[in-house]
Amino acid sequence: MRGSRRRSAAVVVAGLTAAVLALSGCTTGGGGGDEASTLTIAHDGNTQINFDPGVGSITVTTYLAPVYDTLLRRLSDGSYEPNLATEWGYDSPTEFTLKLRDDVKFADGTPVDAEAVVANLENVKNGTGPLATDFATVQSIKAQDDATVHITLSAPNPSLPLTLSGVSGMIANPEAIEAGSLATKPDGSGPYDYVADESISNDTYVYEKRDDYWNADAFPYDRLVVKVIPDAAAAVNALESGQVDMVELGTAADIARVEKAGLGFTGASNNVWTLHLEDRAGKLVPALGDVRVRQAMNFAIDRAAIVESVNQGLGTPTTQLVKPGMAGFDETLNNVYSYDPQKAKDLLAEAGYAEGFSVDAVSISLADTQVQALVGYLAEVGITLNVVNVPPDQYIPSILSGEYPTAFLPYGMVDAYFDFGQLVIPNGGFNPMKSSDEEINALYAEAGAATNDEDRAAILEQINARVVDLAWFLPMFNDAYGYALSDAVTGVKWTTFRPPMYYHWAPAS
Amino acid sequence: MIRLVIRRLLLGIPLVLIVATVAFFLVQLTPGSPAAAVLGTQATPEAVARFEASLGLDRPILEQYAEYMGQLLTLNLGESWLTRESVSSLLASRLPVTVSLATLATIVAMVIGILIGTVAAVRGGVLDRILTAVSGFGLALPNFWLASILVLVFSLELGWFPATGYVDFARNPAAWALHLVLPVTTLAVAMVASFARQTRTGMLEQLSSDYVRTLVGAGTSRTSVIWRHTLRNAAGPVVNTAGLLFVGVLGGAVIIEQVFALPGIGRVIVQSASTRDLPVLLGAVVVSAIVVLAVNILVDVIVALLNPRARTS
């Protein structure tokens, strides 16, 4: 009796073992990096994956870039290269002209011509997507002839090349726009076709190279697979175990883990972690109305120590919002507010706040470590920062409500002209208390009217210096953000656009 | 038996409609709007108006509710506001992931738990205490931690199982099984203890009852007494436990789906809630309710099959 029970247990165990061995003997299908010509990347899927560029946002670029050509191509140094457009430029600050290639066609043979481009830009401008605001100043878009598109603006907007090199500049087949079928059936002239049959919505997106693509050499992979992996740790697991070739990462802990595992990382600054001192007129907290108080706050924090202690050494201390390498950046501005608590106390005393003061800051719990570092340093000079954590979906609305004198908000500039327009111009989207400075306003108008990039860059540097001098912000550090890569991929270039454009990415040979 | 099933099915229909109604109005109560979630904070009022008009959100709430319920009654779950996909086809690709995961985890835990519980009850003594302690230890491990450890050891170090992802059973059954080994193990470890305890208690109770003594006295083999007669009578509560745990796993799978990047229903719910994609969210809630209902009916049927006395109640 006992014997038979033991035997049956043994049979069960042996059976399970055999099954596991048999299974582990099989190779896993669909892993990345097995075939030299397949590139598999992980994306957090934190976007609405809709293939209509007219409703797209920057975060959907990863899924759209394989199927659509953009009008221009932005390079990692911030300059632009021809793509569908061969020539472009401002005829005046409010007139912009594009000349198109004449040899590109959609899959059904429809030419990618000026009419198609007009239909697409109209689709974004009149669309229900967040990028419609990029075209807020666009008054009219006209096809002058088959290969020439003319854009008229209601106000100067030097950011058009940037806009046209992203999702807003992606060109879809006008017939598909007309038919309203793009959402689930992309129809572009890009390097890859979307393979719906092999794709699983919100999990796996498969793309296959088009045989007749006009710029085939720039896209060496035959197949492209995007895997949706919402959790960063899971994505790094997939990278480490060879299931994917590339992961986008943004937190210090994840990047440290990737580097420890000996995987490649290429990246740049994404956000400047900043306390926005919104109440520059002192409406809610009179102390903030005094420039000496805002400067004192900037002198009070040890940025290098914060990077070292709360951000695992990743990132670089900064006192300006413009990122290195961007037009308007000035290295010397980073020396304006070196850590000097004594000077901070002196400035506070001079302004009549020797006893300190107390101020609210709206934030989210995700940023608590960094915010608490700030709280500690400010407390040392007598300033009490009361952190008010709000739920994620109320975070931005709370900041924009104008009800908080300061806001903790990591801000990633993409283009200094565009972003200064958001941050320091009275009607800017991220200037909730409508702070206004005559000198800044005048310089900004001048930058908009500048006819060449060098002139504009020089003016942007002046704006930057003025903003730093007025201490409208309390910037802490530039974080790191980028692509973690398996050693099977080469040629990956970082662009100030976070999402990858796959251009010139190649298998390691 | 068939009457029982039909009665339960008919009772289920109003329940699903109530769940859908509660979910519909709960979502309306949450702050924020779909337009804000999709268009971002800098959208112009015209863009917001265009967006809301395109989805019919500018109509009175009761009108929207009536339309939704009308669709639901014709088994139409509508389409996603954001991606324009049909909600039923989206959920049809998601449900098998979560159901595979929950079913396998429940079965594995049940088999192991019944073995442990039975052995503990029959043998008693030190072995009983050891088995109870070990299964209890599994219950105490946080599953996200266990999942990370399993990935570290079995995927990254040993390379036996894939760290993430899911493969459709129809596409490649072996890969399907391989991808589920670690997630199923993670979930099953915590459930084993419940099954073991339930079985042990039930077995101890049954083993001391008169019919067991009669069977033993009549010379029935010990194996037959334990595995055929006693376990069958002790199995009712175990099956009920299985139903409860399965439903629990269905809800808790969201964490495991996250860690192993499985495209299950949990991920759909989290994502559609954060983007306020109401048709997808409601569809997922309704389908989950139907699954829970189906499992409950199944449990009743199994209990009835095991124990004729339960059929009449």
Description:
The complex is a heterodimer of chains A (about 500) and B (about 325). By secondary structure, chain A is α+β, with helices and mostly antiparallel strands. Chain A contains 15 helices and 21 strands. In chain A, strands 1, 10, 11, 12, 13, 14, 15, 16, 17, 18 and 19 form an 11-stranded mixed β-sheet that branches. A 4-stranded antiparallel β-sheet of chain A has the order 5-6-8-7, covered by helices on one side. In chain A, helix 8 (about 290-300) packs antiparallel against helix 10 (about 340-350) and helix 14 (about 440-450) runs antiparallel to helix 15 (about 455-470). Chain A is globular and about 75 Å long. Chain B has helices at about 1-30, 35-40, 45-55, 60-75, 85-125, 125-140, 145-155, 175-205, 210-215, 220-260, 265-275, 280-305, 310. Chain B has 13 helices and no strands. Chain B is about 80% helix and about 0% strand. With about 325 residues, chain B is an all-alpha fold. At the A-B interface, helix 1, helix 6 and helix 12 of A face helix 2, helix 3, helix 5, helix 7 and helix 8 of B.
Question: What are the salient characteristics of this protein?
Answer:
heterodimer, A: 509 residues, alpha+beta, four-stranded antiparallel beta sheet, globular, disordered N terminus, B: 313 residues, mainly alpha
